[in-house]
Amino acid sequence: MNDAEGLKKIAGEAACEFVKSGMRVGLGTGSTVKYTVLELARRIQEEGLQIVGVPTSIATENLARENGVPLVELGSLDGLDIVIDGTDEFDPNFQLIKGGGAALLREKIVAQQSAAMVVVADARKQVECLGAFGIPIEITPFACDVTVSRLETLLKCNVQLRKNGSEYILTDNGNCIADAHTGPNILDPLATEATILNIAGVVQVGLFNNMCDAVVLASKDGVKTLMNPAGRLKRA
Ligand code: 5RP
Predict the structure, then answer these.
(1) How confident is the model at residue 220 (pLDDT cuts 50, 70, 90)?
(2) pTM of the model
(3) 138 lines ligand 1 (CB under 6 A)
């Protein structure tokens, strides 16, 4: 395991401290939270941890099933106790850019149903100002090029539809996904989110504002948990 992968594993596993028996847990998507799912599976098998999970993507659903994490439909529960998810960037106010793995729509639905959100990250994800990582935006296949040019006009930046060769990459929901390359200058993420969501062809945007309660951050100096002072969580 190389250094970057090792940091993902440390962060992903450490976040499991927030999970106790009886909890309903949102399971995020990506290469960092993969280690959270695997550690929860280990605790279920070896320590008798009792939880139910709600996956945020087909990939996470498959991973959880293969490793024996019990899953339920989000709609069968009256909310979740916690969601643990990865991020592409987080800023000093705990605002996030997510969706690098194209799972942002389900991730946001699950996060909105959760009483708390813990993010797992390595030090590369910590930024002063959001936007170096292009903002992922899920858009309808219908007239997706029209939506893209409207986004370019409004955001004054290049917006690129994700493609595999000449084929659009589709999300788990059958939508297209694009990335808005604003550069690291998103000074008001709430305003940017509102601007993007105002376009009819936009299904959802990967700006996750005022959702993240804590970041479990792994760096070469070890792992630490950054608590959002405005968040809903006390330390694990
Ligand atoms: C998927 C996401 C991921 O959580 C995000 O891209 C981080 O992934 P990774 O841990 O692999 O860097 O938002 O839509």
Answers:
(1) very high
(2) 0.97
(3) no
